[in-house]
Design a protein that fits this description.
Elements: H1 9-12, E1 17-20, E2 23-27, H2 39-47, H3 58-70, E3 78-83, H4 90-104, H5 114-135, E4 136-137, E5 145-146, E6 149-156, E7 162-170, H6 188-196, H7 199-204, H8 228-238, H9 242-259, H10 281-295, H11 299-307, E8 308-313, E9 316-321, H12 324-354, E10 363-369, H13 381-411, H14 425-432, H15 438-448, H16 453-465, E11 471-472, E12 481-486, E13 489-494, H17 498-503, H18 508-515, H19 520-526, H20 544-560, E14 563-570, H21 583-587, H22 591-603
Parallel strand pairs: 2-14, 3-10, 3-14
Antiparallel strand pairs: 1-2, 4-5, 6-7, 6-10, 8-9, 11-12, 12-13
Helix pairs in contact: 3-4, 4-5, 5-6, 5-8, 5-12, 9-10, 9-12, 13-14, 13-20, 15-16
The protein binds adenosine-5'-triphosphate.
Adenosine-5'-triphosphate binds next to helix 4 and strand 5.
């Protein structure tokens, strides 16, 4: 039990874990704890005859899953689901689990295969710094916040040795490339480049001394993750050769220069907007020229594709100058599409580098690290998708929990009676059910593609779904919105911009521009982009929610086919203070976290 609210007894005795039914609760100490994850500790849990009876630890979960594979207990494949709010410690925990398997499932003692195996373990672990550099960012809630979800499958051979891995990522927050929330930063990789570049690289990336970038706010804030050399080293290990690295970094440098390109207001609607005559015109033009050179595209074409839209009327083409806002949207869109595709390419490269041949592995242990439930002042499509994912996982957890309880009752000869639990099926029906749901209506409005999208969506929602108890509208709100009662709380979603985000259109002129790039990586990435995924208007045929729902359904299928293990990470205070527990900040946030904390206090 806590001796004071701020320094619970468990901190003093280094008890950061507790079992709570079928869940392991992990309290974030916000400070590296000596010897908590050392090699000796790993070995201790690995060789322990009854790990369940040892001091609660993440390695118990890891070992239990490993022994299930060894014992070929059905379902033999395992999933370790790590959940919790932003900053609670999911990524840290996932890394610990990966290190554990890279150690205990290593065959480095077998002389014959030492080299290959050492390489694969190293490569699997090296995928982390790369994905974190490109997919994590410093936010108000966490200096190293993952802006994507990931499921990594560690592949084990017949002797349960780690022979490879594969990664699946979900919904990268690509808007961050061009729009960073107040007091937050862009993805780490940009700051790593800025801070870690040699003079030669700065020259190559056309960064003038002291140049600042619109898309790099809070560059003076330094975080632990700003280490460029770690990313480069990991890239080397994974086999990203120096030419490819050069191509990657010039693309990123091009994105940064692009962010400094701004447009002036329209004076004559028949003419394209000028680039801003801010300090001096040559400066603004300079950014565009630099961006064009770094992205290896003709500067004139870049300028035109940002400022002029090509409308097709039958066989004819009409050129229409864009407004100032439209130009900025196109600029941002260009940056986002490049970054998102680059990220996807990196993940594919990592997979090619670490994935074992299908014939060499027989089982896997999957580690799922997904964004926790989100509720901000302003919530939009990103939060809708994230919270939908959490609803799905919650449903999976509840089903598993009830099944485990039932089995326990039956094995003890007790009568199993119906237990009331937080049923989130109706919320899932609201979001994805058929024939009508929030997602289906959102897609329907996207297909109509009218100017008054937001209004239409709002009207359709109210007409079709107002009977559903999980959706409501705040009568006093002036913004078009809808409120969903999720299992973890009520969230008000802004409708403004949601339909457009779901369409995620990329003007075809931008794709053609990128296809003309002389940068071999851009060429490679965009070569197949006219493969029918886009309509003639540049609209993606597959909407964001459809794609996300699909990938989540695949994930759920995998989870259902495995033996799950749950770890709930708890953030003990909101400003990431080491060894500090603030009950008021933690208890009110989520009923599930509160429950876990109650259990922790009862059981210490
Ligand atoms: N077991 C631990 N020991 C020491 N420090 C930890 C531990 N777990 C987490 N931390 C600290 O907390 C920070 C936040 O953890 P982490 O990035 O894993 O959170 P997260 O749940 O993945 O957040 P997000 O959802 O924003 O990605 C880490 O950068 C690290 O400093």
């Amino acid at each position: 039990v806590c001796d004071t609210l701020h320094k619970p007894a468990r901190y003093r005795v280094h008890m950061f874990y507790t079992h709570a039914g079928c869940t392991l609760v992990a309290l974030n100490p916000f400070r590296p704890v000596p010897d908590l994850y050392s090699l000796d500790v790993m070995k201790e849990y690995h060789h322990c005859p009854q790990p369940q009876e040892s001091k609660p630890h993440i390695f118990i979960v890891a070992e239990e899953a490993y022994r299930n594979v060894q014992g070929q207990v059905e379902p033999v494949d395992q999933s370790l689901v790590v959940s919790g709010e932003s900053g609670a410690g999911k990524t840290w925990t996932s890394r610990c689990l990966m290190k554990y398997y890279a150690t205990v499932a290593s065959s480095s003692s077998l002389e014959t295969s030492q080299n290959t195996v050492e390489r694969i373990e190293r490569r699997v672990l090296d995928s982390n710094p790369i994905m974190e550099a490109f997919g994590n960012a410093c936010t108000l809630r966490n200096n190293n916040s993952s802006r994507f979800g990931k499921y990594i499958q560690l592949q084990l051979d017949r002797c349960q040795l780690l022979v490879g891995a594969s990664v699946q990522t979900y919904l990268l927050e690509k808007t961050r490339v061009a729009n960073q929330p107040t007091n937050e930063r862009n993805f780490h990789i940009f700051y790593q480049m800025m801070k870690g570049a040699t003079d030669e690289q700065r020259l190559e990336w056309m960064m003038s001394p002291g140049q600042t970038f619109q898309w790099l706010p809070n560059a003076d804030k330094t975080v632990e993750e700003d280490c460029f050399s770690d990313t480069l080293e990991a890239m080397d290990h994974l086999g990203v050769d120096s030419d490819r690295q050069k191509q990657i970094f010039t693309i990123l440098a091009g994105i940064l220069q692009l962010g400094n390109v701004t447009f002036s207001t329209w004076t004559d609607e028949s003419q394209p907007c000028n680039l801003t005559e801010d300090v001096c015109l040559s400066f603004a033009v300079d950014f565009l020229l630099r961006a064009a050179e770094l992205l290896c595209v003709p500067a004139d074409d870049l300028q035109t594709s940002l400022r002029v839209r090509t409308l097709r009327a039958g066989k004819h083409q009409v050129l229409k100058p864009c407004s100032q806002t439209e130009c900025s949207v196109r600029r941002d869109c260009l940056a986002k599409v490049i970054y998102a595709e680059l990220f996807e390419w990196l993940v594919m490269f990592i997979n090619n580098s670490i994935c074992a041949d299908q014939s060499t592995w027989s089982n896997f242990i999957g580690v799922l690290d997904v964004y926790g439930f989100e509720c901000f002042q302003m919530n939009n499509l990103e939060q809708l998708c994230i919270n939908y994912a959490n609803e799905k996982l919650q449903q999976h957890f509840v089903a598993h929990y009830l099944k485990a309880q039932q089995e326990e009752y039956v094995s003890e000869g007790l009568e199993w009676s119906f237990v009331r639990y937080q049923d989130n099926q109706s919320c899932l029906d609201l979001m994805e059910g058929s024939p009508t749901s929030v997602f289906s209506l959102l897609n329907e409005v996207c297909r109509l593609n009218r100017a008054s999208d937001a209004k239409t969506f709002r009207v359709r929602l109210e007409k079709e779904l107002s009977e559903n108890a999980n959706i409501s509208w705040n009568k006093f709100s002036t913004e078009p919105h809808f409120t969903v009662s999720h299992y973890a709380g009520r969230v008000e979603y802004q409708i403004h911009g949601m339909v457009e985000k779901n369409k995620d259109p990329v003007p075809p002129e931008l794709i053609s521009l990128l296809q003309s790039s002389k940068n071999p990586l851009i060429q490679h990435i965009f070569a197949e982009k006219d493969d029918g995924k886009q309509t003639s208007k540049g609209l993606s045929k597959v909407t964001v929610v459809s794609k996300f729902k699909n990938s989540l359904e695949n994930l759920m299928k995998i989870l259902h086919s495995t033996t799950p293990h749950y770890t709930r990470c708890i953030k003990p205070n909101q400003d990431c203070q080491p060894l500090t527990f603030r009950k008021d900040e933690t208890f009110s946030r989520c009923w599930y976290d509160s429950l876990c904390l109650c259990l922790m206090n009862m059981w210490t």
